[in-house]
């Protein structure tokens, strides 16, 4: 059995200073832990995970204190690489209207294991003014799908992270007033649907249906306590892994970030 957790920590230095991340790891002991929005360079967060058998793999943004992803793994991957392969990246444009290159933001790590790949992603936010929606819709989402489908030619894929989109009306507490806004535009939703159409499985929906299951809450209006949230953090798996998924969970009791962790258990 392999447990894979994903968590947008919204600043790894903050959750380590509080001891939140260390306590979470000790309590849950994930085999593979994928983090998004680390906002740090390797060595800036004093976690000492090597003593617990974890190897660390980082992809930090060129801009200090921004974005970033990491994988902490008790299982040694056979290979790890950051960002997109050149053969895929050159087919798309990743610079937005403001001249910011999303490939410089440490948003993607791919780790190869014996029976599957793990891809963790911190998808660019479309922004309040939707200035990054074009980037998302025409470039980032299609490139990520192309990357995952290319990996699938060798072995199945576990894709996890903050995808910055609520897929359906069941995935946010107030769909009506948020329709067309960042995270719930038709373009972003279709980008997610493209993964489903390609055979990827939204693992949480194998076990739970309906609304009320969220992974991110605004800091305003006591949203988390009232459970007025969005489900924008996911674990998707290739169709070949569907029957191996024995559990998929959201962990709203884990505090320390405006997001909570999500996890799956694989019978491999």
What's the structural blueprint in terms of helices and strands?
Layout: E1 2-8, H1 12-17, H2 20-28, E2 32-36, E3 55-59, E4 69-73, E5 79-82, H3 86-89, E6 108-112, E7 117-122, H4 133-152, E8 157-162, H5 175-178, H6 186-197, E9 201-202, E10 216-217, H7 223-226, E11 229-230, E12 233-237, E13 245-250, E14 262-266
Parallel strand pairs: 1-2, 7-8
Antiparallel strand pairs: 1-14, 2-4, 3-4, 5-6, 6-7, 8-12, 9-12, 10-11, 13-14
Helix pairs in contact: 4-6
Instruction: Choose one word for the global shape.
Output: globular
Number-wise, the strands total: 14
What is the name of the CATH topology? Deoxyribonuclease I, Chain A
CATH class: Alpha Beta
CATH architecture label: 4-Layer Sandwich
What's the helical proportion of residues? 10-25%
Instruction: Name the structural class.
Output: alpha+beta
> What is the CATH homology-level superfamily?
Endonuclease/exonuclease/phosphatase
Strand order of the largest sheet: 3-4-2-1-14-13
Question: Strand percentage, roughly?
Answer: 15-25%
Q: Major sheet, described briefly?
A: 6 strands, mixed
- CA(first)-CA(last) distance: 5 Å
Element order: H for helix, E for strand: EHHEEEEHEEHEHHEEHEEEE
Domain tally: 1
Poorly predicted runs of 5 or more residues: none
Radius of gyration, in Å, reads: 17 Å
* Average pLDDT over all residues: 95
* Number of contiguous helices: 7
